[in-house]
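Quick one, tokens below:
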């Protein structure tokens, strides 16, 4: 918190905006401790900048939606009509395309330093449940009364950042801890990387 106050809380908010955070952020000391709410997709996208050595891409959850009732060959999904595509797809009637792809945001050495610090969280801190031995980097988070339990992490040199959020839809306490989100992340990533 002292570093943020020395740098200036307004500058912290500006950097969060550069990293893709669009949620309302109040430039008050509690900002550093998570006082402002940010959704998991925005946070995961911000971590993506570190994972991608300073280059930003718009985060997304769905790559493509196809209409399984409109296929040339019902046994081949590639012959189905595309309804939505995150990436430009000439065969899709509603190609979104990401005009914000590959935007330089940070110098690579700054992103690399952040990765080193986030690797420390996994190796020696609250993120130990995510340790697969592949240089994972990430951060846990728990809000008051365990309402929100987070882990957002990545494996350097992989093309994916994954954010895990656990909580109740009515914002009631979960009586859990972020170690549960960390363990879920680790289990999921083991399957993704084939460990």
């Amino acid at each position: 918190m002292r570093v943020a106050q020395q740098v200036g809380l307004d500058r912290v908010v500006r950097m969060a905006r550069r990293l893709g955070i669009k949620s309302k952020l109040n430039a008050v000391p509690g900002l550093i401790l998570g006082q402002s709410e940010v959704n998991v997709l925005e946070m995961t996208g911000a971590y993506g900048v570190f994972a991608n050595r300073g280059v930003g891409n718009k985060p997304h959850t769905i790559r493509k939606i196809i209409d399984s009732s409109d296929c040339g060959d019902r046994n081949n999904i590639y012959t189905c009509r595309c309804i939505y595509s995150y990436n430009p797809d000439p065969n899709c009637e509603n190609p979104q395309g990401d005009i914000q792809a590959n935007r330089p945001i940070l110098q690579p050495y700054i992103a690399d330093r952040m990765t080193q610090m986030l690797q420390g969280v996994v190796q020696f801190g609250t993120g130990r449940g995510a340790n697969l031995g592949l240089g994972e980097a990430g951060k846990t988070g728990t809000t008051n009364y365990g309402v929100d339990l987070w882990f957002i992490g990545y494996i350097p040199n992989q093309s994916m950042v994954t954010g895990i959020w656990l909580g109740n839809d009515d914002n009631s306490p979960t009586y859990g801890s972020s170690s549960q989100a960390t363990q879920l992340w680790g289990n999921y990533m083991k399957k993704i990387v084939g460990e």
